[in-house]
Specification:
single chain, about 400 residues, alpha/beta, 9-stranded mixed β-sheet
């Protein structure tokens, strides 16, 4: 019997077998990688679901601690102007007003991704006197109050104006301010001659007149050096609504005051550290220019309330914007803006007004400062800060 070993397989067979093993190994590696990625995606979905659940729970918790939207807008009688007798002899541009940023975007009005829980009615009853409203013309040609996209939530212009009409009629010693910002429902901002912009202005003008609010409007059409009236003078004239828009002079309606009479701080600050950097002003500065201090962060646009972030900050040690709407940080930051920029904050704008101290901060400003001489602000602010126990106004 021939027991000699078998001859080796041809080279092609060895090569082919090696390739098969390589292919098999590669397939197994791809399978393991695919399974790992699927598990990673599943984990990501689970984490997202967890945070969505926490978010919904927080909204429910906040709503449970928010007063039901008021149906009665009649304040107790007062001899003061905006509830304060000391404000009656002061000019409109010498007073600080608590301001509701994107006021329409509140949970009680049906917005899921909201920037407030409490509605405009409650804000009026609690002392908010200025309101920022974004009016968009949709692709269907209607105007709605929306933020960025009307698909994310909207409110009617007529219904919102009716709230202000009722409040102004029922409270003859209250002065209210509206800021209109024009938008185009995710479409680019057209130039002044485009049909969308013309139609938006036309419909808004009709809505203002139909609301019967134009009879109450004080429009400051004069030059910068002409004084604003006092609150008492505005009450005497029954002109107790100021409406700002960015409309150009040649197309401005009788009820519009140019937004160019104001300057404002950045509205794109990301977190508490950005708030600490101060209040750089955009545009030029004059002694009678109205200053808007934006005191909110961009995460507020995601519907994250100060009340919730304070809780989450304690649980997860996330402190990137906890307590920004509360004393002492809020008050100290506004005082620092006054000190560093040498300006008087005419409008202090916040998200989630109902969990903020904005009304108290505005009262602090109106109680301690009077715009008699802007050059004295830096000294006065430091003195007031020390009197209020804020020391050197350090925000750290």
């Amino acid at each position: 019997m021939n027991l000699s070993p078998l001859p080796p397989p041809p080279f092609e067979t060895i090569k082919s077998g090696t390739q098969c093993k390589v292919v098999e190994s590669h397939s197994q590696w791809c399978l393991y990688l695919t399974l790992f990625l699927l598990k990673l995606i599943k984990l990501g979905i689970t984490i997202l679901q967890f945070f969505c659940s926490v978010y919904i729970i927080m909204i429910v918790y906040e709503l449970a601690h928010t007063k039901t939207c008021s149906t009665v807008l009649d304040l107790p009688k007062s001899a003061g102007c905006n509830r304060e007798t000391r404000l009656c002899d002061r000019r409109y541009n010498h007073i600080s007003f608590a301001t509701m940023h994107n006021a329409f975007a509140n949970t009680q009005a049906g917005f899921l991704v909201a920037q407030h829980r409490g509605c405009i009615q409650n804000a009026l009853m609690q002392g908010i006197r200025a309101f920022m409203l974004d009016v968009h013309i949709t692709s269907s040609g209607n105007i709605l109050l929306c933020h960025v996209s009307c698909a994310m939530g909207s409110a009617t212009v007529s219904g919102t104006l009716e709230i202000f009409r009722q409040f102004i009629v029922q409270n003859p010693r209250e002065i209210v301010t509206i800021f209109w910002e024009f938008g185009y429902d995710m479409r680019s901002d057209p130039n002044s001659h485009d049909d969308d912009k013309i139609e938006l202005r036309h419909q808004l003008n009709l809505a203002m007149h139909k609301s019967n609010l134009t009879a109450f409007v004080y429009a400051h059409h004069t030059m910068y050096f002409v004084q604003w009236p006092t609150l008492q003078e505005m009450i005497g004239m029954d002109k107790r609504l100021v409406v700002f828009t960015d409309s150009r002079f040649h197309i401005r309606n009788s009820w519009e005051t140019s937004i160019q009479k104001t300057i404002q701080t950045s509205f794109q600050l990301s977190d508490i550290n950005a708030l600490k950097t101060g209040c750089p002003m955009s545009g030029f500065r004059l002694s009678r220019t109205l200053v808007v201090v934006n005191h909110f962060v961009t995460l507020g646009a995601l519907g994250i309330n100060g009340m919730s972030t304070n809780i989450l900050a304690s649980v997860f040690h996330v402190k990137f914007f906890a307590n920004i709407n509360k004393f002492p940080f809020f008050a100290k930051r506004i005082l620092l803006c006054m000190k560093d920029s040498d300006v008087f904050p005419s409008f202090i704008a916040v998200d989630f007004w109902e969990s903020s101290d904005v009304v108290q901060v505005v009262d602090m400003i109106n109680s301690n400062f009077y715009v008699a001489n802007y050059s004295w602000f830096a000294v006065d602010v430091a003195t007031v800060g020390q009197t209020l126990g804020f020391g050197n106004l350090n925000l750290d």
